[in-house]
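To the wet lab folks,

You asked to see what we're planning to order before we commit. Fair enough. Below is the target structure as tokens, and below that is the sequence we designed to fit it. If anything looks off to you, flag it before the synthesis order goes out.
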């Protein structure tokens, strides 16, 4: 059986990438805290786990899906940015062949400057962030296999959204600012934009929505037990509920 190794050079892990991974994770946690600042769970963690997402990512919840996606995007973003800045030995500016041929730019332009290396960041994040979910110990049909596939899916969502919103940035050249010629390069979007997109993509299912094909929760039977998965507080979306007592003969 073959084993897939994680990006080695000369038998050693890319050690200069680790500060970038750490900083990308910090940005992701900061964005998580901002996005959930008005929610019941505000991306808080126990004091002993400060700087980490915490146990919430081990559960199959919307919040966990967000943390996986934003963490993957954060690492991708920071690696791609540091490539452009020349802070990593194994990468540099975005390669010319990786730049899109058309991005709604007029003909009077040329690729130039030094763009963020989204492709390298994407590959590194996929190999590094996903490695835990690819471990041999997680066997098909075994407990945890489905969760592992879900986590990898959420990781990929974060990376793909980041890549999809990496756009050209252009600088004009010409007499008196006439912009006769543009020099363009690829620029990563801010992490805030990715966080907003990830949050907007998650419906509440509280209201009837014909577009998403959901009928809402009005009229559903719920439990007054606040810890139950079908608790009234959760299903009724804080809109209140009516209690009924039924006699069973």
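Sequence we intend to order:
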């Amino acid at each position: 059986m073959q084993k897939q190794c994680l990006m080695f050079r000369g038998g050693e892990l890319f050690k200069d990438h680790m500060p970038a991974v750490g900083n990308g994770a910090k940005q992701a946690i900061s964005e998580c805290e901002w996005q959930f600042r008005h929610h019941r769970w505000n991306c808080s963690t126990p004091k002993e786990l400060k700087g980490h997402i915490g146990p919430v990512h081990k559960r199959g919840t919307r919040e966990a899906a967000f943390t996986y996606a934003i963490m993957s995007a954060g690492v991708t973003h920071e690696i791609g940015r540091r490539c452009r800045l020349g802070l990593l030995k194994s990468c540099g500016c975005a390669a010319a062949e990786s730049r899109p041929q058309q991005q709604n730019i007029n003909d009077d332009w040329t690729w130039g400057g030094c763009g963020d290396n989204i492709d390298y960041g994407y590959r590194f994040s996929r190999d590094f962030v996903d490695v835990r979910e690819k471990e041999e110990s997680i066997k098909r049909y075994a407990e945890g296999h489905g969760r592992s596939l879900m986590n990898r899916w959420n990781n990929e969502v974060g990376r793909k959204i980041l890549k999809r919103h990496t756009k050209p940035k252009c600088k004009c050249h010409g007499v008196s600012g006439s912009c006769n010629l543009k020099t363009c390069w690829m620029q990563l979007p801010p992490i805030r934009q990715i966080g907003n997109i990830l949050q907007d993509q998650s419906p509440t299912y509280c209201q009837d929505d014909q577009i998403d094909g959901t009928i809402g929760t009005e009229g559903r039977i719920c439990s007054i037990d606040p810890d139950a998965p079908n608790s009234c507080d959760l299903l009724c979306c804080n809109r209140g509920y009516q209690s009924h007592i039924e006699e069973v003969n």
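Structural context that might help your review: Confidence is low (pLDDT under 50) at residues 1-11. The beta strands are 8-9, 12-13, 109-111, 167-173, 181-187, 208-209, 214-215.

Thanks,
Computational group
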